[in-house]
């Protein structure tokens, strides 16, 4: 399966590039989908430990607002992205020290509460954040070059694709490493993990910080692609969407989040175009169908198709 | 200090009255969520949508009742009827058709099933009631104002918010405590909450209890919404707001405590309305700050009991 997965990842990436060339308007949707996929990889790490964060929109919006605040001072995409990622990781470390003491519903709810605190700060501190109007993000430079809008969009698409592949590889290695194995032990029997001398809190904390880094990076890509950030990116329903995408794609493999994110964004775009008032309900129905009939997600379907052929 | 009170005393009094009415509504939703989680072990994200649908249905039913010539006093019982209809129809439907299929699944999937339901119900509201604000304050106008004595002054406050909302909440609290502790069905619900396996082994039909509890929780949520409808104009997004707030109450109170949920709702309701009057920027923040502060000190919630760890 390992080799197949690599082949599928390369094939999928090629397919995305082809789609972006054939239908230029899809390039925007696909960039957002890839960015969200990166954030969902972070959710996947936490799901391995059996923990659901209903608050990771916090890191998405934190990364996005970091870009919005810093872009006028240093308009360079390749500096803004790592800065947003690192600051978001720092925030994740501070919050993680607190939330990694909790499990299950308390873990979910605390993440939710903290993300809602940040959301209402974004909304209320009008003086700094312009409230619900949001902040416009100018086109930053890319590698020191001032690009046209079209070229910049291509650059962001390419960057998102490369980052998605790199971070996907990283997550696969991480999950196979002893750290990743310890992570799934938190889900099965945490006490036994500690009997073996491994600190469960530290294991969960490191996954949490990684997920915050990925969330911040995804947020920075989203900010530079949509070029307008609003507090809505930090609302709890966005956190719910990230978990949704994780389950839709299948939480079993690193390719799942991207499969889920691309499907999610495409269904959203088409449903919103044809049924303006019911796109959310359509996504809800898709999610119900996936959970009730294919609880291993789209990636699980691909896998079982593959097995049947082999 | 004395000078501050002279100046802001009335405002503080108004904030306390407002907070009391608000806490009553928060309690109605949170206690239903708590009850359902205790028995089904499913955190129902769509609980807030039932509140919103209860509110919309009450407003529509009230308008319909008024236009079909029912007397003005009928606007109060109409609220109860709307809540019973919404909870009594949607509750069993959701439990039988959806939740029942996922009790054996992982908690993540259960959470997401209710999230999917939330998405569907949110759009259903927009399709039925549109995105324009809906308002029907007949029940509140019916009872008029009441002058609350406050020191040498009076604070005019609507009798509906002063008597009906806290009254129904207290009645729910007392009734629920009596039901769970004194009646057979109530004790069976407590038994299933405490130990599902042992309860089933004693011959309790858990599936019937699940249906009953979920319907009951749905009616409580719809009742909270119906009672709130005369006091505010209803806009989309009500369900999403309500659910995060009631999550905060449930997590702060700890699971399985109805009196605890009442006290927490009171605490959160009062501090929120004090924030509304004296520090408007912090209005939305207060419930979450209280929750984070409480969980920092007591990880199992104010009134929750810490679970022993599995080995």
UniProtKB/TrEMBL annotation, chain A:
- This protein's source sits in the domain of life called Bacteria
Its membrane topology = Multi-pass membrane protein
Record-linked Pfam families: BPD_transp_2
Database matches in InterPro entries: ABC_transp_permease (IPR001851), LivM-like (IPR043428)
CDD domains under this entry? TM_PBP1_LivM_like
Q: Which UniProt keywords apply?
A: Cell membrane, Membrane, Transmembrane, Transmembrane helix
Give TM regions.
Answer: 7-23, 29-47, 54-71, 77-98, 105-122, 154-177, 198-222, 242-267, 279-299
Locations listed in the record? Cell membrane
Q: What protein is this chain from? A: Branched-chain amino acid ABC transporter permease
Native species of this protein? Roseococcus pinisoli
Automatic annotation (TrEMBL), chain B:
* Predominant place of localization: membrane
Q: Which residues cross the membrane?
A: 20-43, 50-66, 72-90, 102-121, 159-180, 209-228, 234-253, 285-306
Looking up InterPro entries in the UniProt record yields: ABC_transp_permease (IPR001851), BCAA_transport_permease (IPR052157)
Q: Membrane topology for this entry?
A: Multi-pass membrane protein
Alphabetical keyword list:
Amino-acid transport, Cell membrane, Membrane, Transmembrane, Transmembrane helix, Transport
- Localization in the cell: Cell membrane
Is Transmembrane given among the entry's keywords? yes
Family the entry assigns: Belongs to the binding-protein-dependent transport system permease family. LivHM subfamily.
| Record-given protein name | Branched-chain amino acid ABC transporter permease
Organism per entry: Roseococcus pinisoli
